[in-house]
Structures are given as C-alpha cells and as structure tokens.
Specification:
Largest sheet: 8 strands, antiparallel
Bound molecules: flavin-adenine dinucleotide
Radius of gyration: 22 Å
Structural class: alpha+beta
Helix content: 25-40%
Distance between the termini: 38 Å
Strand content: 15-25%
Shape: globular
Number of helices: 13
C-alpha cells in the first residue's frame, strides 16, 4: 500500500502533546501538524475550491498506520467535544472484540456496558451479505452481537451513544504496601459496596512497577492499588473520594485532575504486546472473607513481577439492564475479577499458568458461576457458563445467521 493521507479535525488544544507524540511514534508514516514542513502540501487537494486545515494529517504508510490513525481519531475526536462512550480501561483494546463480548470500564457504572450504548452495527454475515443490526432491523442479530462475540459475522461499523465526559476527570491511584493489604481490602469492600454511579474504584494486587510517582525502594515489592475514577463534577468527586484518600498510610496518592484520554492510556505501558499472558476470571456479588483470604494468599506468592489480581467494580447502570435484554447475561455481577498472569519467557509458562489456575479454583466457591466471555482463555470454560440462560437463544441466532459455523475460530457457539 502506498502512502495515503488521513486528515483529522478538531481542536489540538484539548489533546496533550504526549498523546500526539505517541501517535507520531506509533506511525510508520508521517504525522503532520499545521507548523510541520509539508503540512500545506499534504492538506492541499486536487480541487482548489476545497481549502481545509485539518488539526493533524497522518500520512499512512500501510494498513497498520490507517488503523492507528482511525483509532486515534475515534478515541480522541469525541473528547474534543467533551464526549465519550463506555469502553475498556485501556486505550489499546480493540473496540470490536470488546463490544461484541460486552465491554466495561471506567464509565460503565454511569453509562452501562459498551453494548448498552450500541445503537446499531453493520455486519457481514456468513452468506456474504451486509446487514444492519438494531432494535428495528434484524433485532435477533442485534440481541446476539451484544455479548455473543464474533459468532454471527464480521462487524464493519458500530454506532454508539456518547455522553459528556471530561475532557478533564478526577482520577488516579492510591497505593498501599502489602503489609496493609488485608485492611485495604476490607476497607475497599465497605467503600465500594455503596458508590455513586459517577464513581468507580478498581483494586489491584501486584508488585510495584517502576513508575516515577512510586519511591524507588518500593519498586518490585507487593502493593495494593486502588484505581479511582469520577465521571462527574470534580468537586463532587473530591468529596466522594475523601474517605478513600484518608484511609491508612498510603505509599502514594496520585489522584488529581487528568485528561480523560490520558487516564484511559494510564495502564497501557504495563500491558504492552509481546509478553505471555494467561487470564482466568470470576464474577462476584460481594467480597466475602474467604475470598479476601484466598486473594491475599496468592498475591503473597505471585509467580512473576507483572502478574496481577484485579477486582473491577461493575454494578450501577450495568445492572439496571435485564439479563435477557442482551446476550450478555451477568447483570447480577457487582465485581469482576481477572487473574492476570503475565510473564516473558516460555520457561515460566507452567509455573505461571498453574498459579493462575490454582487461585482461580481457590476463589471459585465465592463466585456467581458466571464468567465474562472476553476474560476466558479459548475453550477453557464451557460457554454455557458465560451465557447461562441466554445460551439457547444464542444457538438459535447462530443457526439462523451462521448455520455452517463459518465463524468458529472464536468463543464458539455451535449451531
Ligand atoms: C490489555 C487488555 C485490557 C483489557 N481490558 C478490558 C476492559 O477493561 N474491559 C473489557 O470489557 N475487556 C477488556 N479486555 C478484554 C477485551 O475485551 C478482549 O480481549 C477483546 O476480545 C478485545 O477486542 P479486540 O477487537 O482487540 O480483539 P481481537 O483479539 O482482535 O478479537 C477477539 C475476537 O473478537 C471477535 N472480533 C474481533 N473483531 C471483530 C469484528 N470486527 N467482527 C466480528 N468479530 C470480531 C473475533 O471473534 C475475535 O476472535 C482487555 C484485553 C486486553 C488485552
């Protein structure tokens, strides 16, 4: 593919220099700003009647560049207008797989899952036809793609509701040492049980990464992180987060106003591609003592520096939707836990996978039995568990849209 120019409009003042620099580094082709040499040439097109001045011009040197530029525009363009939709907690996670499995993140307690914001999608089905799925067109397919994954076709576009968010939001991390882990977990259980919908707090047990806001002597030691995000007014957020910030003696408190796009990218550096990863997951309605005991036990013997156990807070708007309204059924889950083993070399595979499986088993007695399909290693959990009472209806939709199971290299619903 030759070089193609992709122009992005918007107000550059609301996009940080770091964000622009990241895009520039990620592209194989050139990124041109109004002050860049070559900008005028790149923005000028054949018809002199059209004289536009895009905020950025990405001169893409291949499909990967186009993907990066489109993703950048989709993430950041809405924020130029102070708008966003509910997506995952990282900026690097693909929107398609995330949406098709459900999709939750910082905004979910206020605005629901990504699928709860989905108005329509264009889908190429197994017979090669492009169809629209929405409440009014092919509603059975629309129901199925909201949680049923890539089983019914290839989605070429999503139409999603957006909401006022930021551009600055109160967000950040409070970090405690492992010596206080039990008290922090018990505090979190009480605090997180009664949050306003604007507030979300996730808890992570792991070893301290070498982040600049953490003292050097802490790097590599076990810590508990409370990652907090407030979707609404900053002053209300300060008030809502006060008990969390007042609790105990944290190693660091890095909560403050951050650009929403920056917060969305905050964990990206810890999750770069190329490492070996193995995930297991449970849903919980609460965090009983036995679960806290198990988490502390396994967090005390993490198999690698990058491994973590996180508890994501759901509830709020997510659970206001009926379990059978979409294919995603877990509208009772208040917490989702991801046991995320992550390491670098094949020699560590056995140790890390075994640790994750053992902790998964130790925490199973406290779980709902349901599991988020996007957090399941392929083929490891029966899909009936992921979909519960919605499974039979998914099979019917599969029989209608993909009776020969063309789309089967996925979390497969067999027709
Ligand atoms: C670092 C990281 C962080 C994550 N954080 C979150 C989180 O905060 N919240 C959350 O909900 N999930 C999270 N996830 C899980 C995530 O939702 C899944 O990994 C999801 O599959 C990612 O989507 P993708 O498009 O990148 O997937 P891919 O790996 O590209 O695809 C996965 C599957 O999705 C289907 N698929 C993908 N694109 C299409 C399409 N266009 N049409 C039809 N089917 C398609 C296919 O079946 C494909 O096999 C995270 C994952 C990672 C790796």
């Amino acid at each position: 593919m030759g070089v193609s120019a992709l122009a992005m409009n918007g107000d550059l003042k609301t996009i940080s220099d770091e964000t622009i620099a990241e895009l520039e580094t990620a592209l194989r082709g050139q990124l041109l700003l109004p002050q860049s040499e070559g900008y005028d040439e790149a923005r000028t097109i054949w018809n002199a009647m059209i004289d536009r001045r895009p905020a950025l011009v990405a001169r893409c040197a291949g499909a990967a560049d186009v993907i990066r530029a489109v993703r950048f525009a989709a993430d950041d363009e809405t924020q130029v207008y102070g708008l966003a939709t509910s997506v995952g907690i990282n900026s690097t996670t693909g929107i398609a797989g995330l949406t098709l499995g459900g999709g939750f993140g910082w905004l979910s307690r206020k605005h629901g899952l990504t699928i709860d914001n989905l108005r329509s999608a264009d889908v190429v089905t197994a017979d090669g036809k492009l169809v629209t799925a929405s409440e009014s067109e092919n509603p059975d397919l629309f129901w199925g793609i909201r949680g049923g994954g890539g089983n019914f076709g290839v989605v070429t576009s999503f139409e999603l509701d957006v909401h006022p968010v930021g551009p600055e939001v109160l967000s950040g991390l409070v970090v405690h040492p492992a010596s206080a882990a039990r008290e922090v977990m018990e505090f979190y259980r009480g605090f997180a049980s009664d949050l306003p919908e604007d507030l979300n707090v996730w808890m992570v047990l792991r070893k301290a990464p070498p982040l600049p806001f953490l003292p050097e002597e802490v790097h590599g030691t076990e810590i508990v992180i409370l990652a907090a995000f407030y979707a609404g007014d900053m002053v209300d957020g300060e008030r809502a987060l006060k008990p969390l910030r007042d609790f105990g003696t944290p190693i660091a408190d890095a909560i403050g106003p951050h650009p929403f796009t920056g917060w969305q990218a905050a964990f990206d550096p810890l999750l770069t591609p190329g490492a070996r990863n193995y995930w297991k997951s449970h849903n919980f309605t609460d965090l009983p003592d036995g679960l806290i005991d198990a988490a502390l036990d396994y967090a005390g013997r993490l198999p690698s520096d990058q491994t973590e156990i996180f508890f994501g807070r759901l509830g709020g708007a997510v659970n206001e939707v009926a379990p059978d309204a979409t294919a995603y059924p877990h509208r009772d889950a208040e917490y989702v836990m991801n046991v995320h083993a992550r390491w670098d070399t094949a020699a560590e595979d056995e140790k890390c996978v075994a640790w994750a499986r053992e902790y998964f088993a130790a925490s199973a007695p406290y779980a709902t039995g349901g599991v988020y399909v996007n957090f399941v290693p392929d083929g490891e959990s029966p899909l009936a568990e992921a979909y519960g009472p919605n499974y039979e209806r998914l099979v019917e939709v599969k029989r209608k849209y993909d009776p020969k199971n063309l789309f089967r290299l996925n979390q497969n619903i067999t027709p």
